[in-house]
Specification:
The structure is a single chain. This protein is mostly helical. The protein contains eight helices and no strands. It is globular.
């Protein structure tokens, strides 16, 4: 069992003892999602997989909070905020932008031929390689900004007009 999941399961017990229902429900949800993913993958999960599960849940809760706020449901927004805070306490600190740019550049260098052919084909590889160090959304945005200069050559090519 991955150390992160073991830690979460230990804290489920302490949340039960302290009668902290929000923490208990949140941690149980993480454990159940991990078990489901483990069954689906038919292999034991690594800490990186648990982190991916938690990040996905944080993203979903954040999106729901925006909708709850727009609907004027402050009670649900506050509940989601508490769950997000609990989940984020299990996520590693994200790397700074400069280091992320450096790592993206290293992945690009290692796959230069594919990048030169079409930078978009490398997006999944970059995210897959770096998802344990930063959120996929942040990686995608940073890679998009870095590769937009490379794709600008396509917009400078002469456009072929439809002939009628």
């Amino acid at each position: 069992m991955p150390p992160l999941l073991t830690r979460i399961q230990t804290e489920v017990i302490s949340a039960m003892k302290s009668h902290d229902t929000v923490r208990l429900e949140t941690l149980r949800f993480i454990v159940s999602q991990a078990k489901y993913k483990e069954i689906e993958a038919q292999k034991e999960l690594a800490d990186e997989d648990i982190i991916t599960i938690i990040r996905k849940q944080v993203k979903e809760l954040s999106e729901a909070s925006v909708q709850f706020t727009a609907a004027g449901r402050a009670d649900l927004t506050d509940a989601n905020k508490k769950q997000i805070d609990i989940m984020q306490s299990y996520l590693p600190a994200e790397i700074p932008d400069e280091e992320l740019k450096k790592l993206i550049t290293e992945v690009i260098s290692a796959n230069q031929a594919a990048y030169d052919a079409n930078p978009r084909t490398l997006t999944g590889k970059v995210i897959g390689t770096l998802k344990s160090k930063a959120s996929p959304d942040r990686i995608s945005k940073m890679y998009g900004m870095m590769s937009s200069k490379a794709t600008s050559w396509r917009s400078s090519e002469p456009q072929v007009k439809n002939r009628k």
